Amino acid sequence: MWRYDPKSGYDDREILVENQGGKKGLYIPDLLTRAALNFVRNNKPDQFNHYRPFFLYLSYIIPHANNEEARRSGNGMQVPTDAPYSTESWQQAEKNKAAMITRLDADVGKLMAKLKELKIDEETVVFFSSDNGPHKEGGIDPKFFQSSGPLRGIKRDLYEGGIRVPLIVRWPAQIKPGQVSSFIGAFWDFLPTAAELAGAKYPTNLDGVSMLPVLFGNSQTNRHEPLYWEFHERGFQQAIRLEDWKAVRPQAGEALELYNLKSDVGEKQNVADKNPAVIAKLEEYLKTARTDSEHWPIKPLAERGAGKDKKAQ
What we know:
Order of helices and strands: HHHEHEHHEEEEHHH
Strand content: 5-15%
Low-confidence stretches: 309-313
Mean pLDDT: 89
Radius of gyration: 22 Å
Largest sheet: 4 strands, antiparallel
Number of helices: 9
Number of strands: 6
Oligomer: single chain
Structural class: alpha+beta
């Protein structure tokens, strides 16, 4: 559940006076923006123009849905106002979703403006990304705005629409603008990348690799092993990517589906039967891709309980 006007902070120790007595005076994303702006302001260069290196992790919660509110009213996309989409003929939840995204865009704009005001935007590295594909919660339909674009699936799917997200990196002093890279990376690449940016040492046995070469427009010589995902909320699902090949196992015990993302980014044509050698290679890798755990056992959907799974969605 995502509440945007709670009575207290995340650890229940901070009382949010603005939201007491049923009031909705404080929208949590606004609080996050305010805190981020204050943090950056407090780390501005001193009177001698000496930089104070800082790291800010800003994790916005919009446009998540409040599913409890959705079950109550049919609209779990909570936002103080649906402007500038108030006069659109869309369903109210879709108006709210659009307003939430516009609000997020404006808040990021405030942060970028603050960096420029403090004259540190040229030397500040900004990473912007999302944690997953579009969701179908809170009364919205991801097809309404074609939120997945040409990709198949949404949040909780291991097809590209669920796990492929954009990454934007801005660093005017070092990174040339307008570059587009096809580097196949993942969030576990951020730690080695950030460590190398800071000149810090990091373990060499990490799953991730530093993306600095590709950010600087150079060839990326340190390549990934195949990327691997598994998901347990709806039975046991697996996915693996090796260069342009992407394989998906819809449920435990089922055969792998195979797609060539270079020619079929929408994962419409399962070419497993035509590429037995690729399937054999990926199946061999999957034997060592995970460590068995009593907390995350391999169970098909039927053993997990279809009713519980449906509720989780």
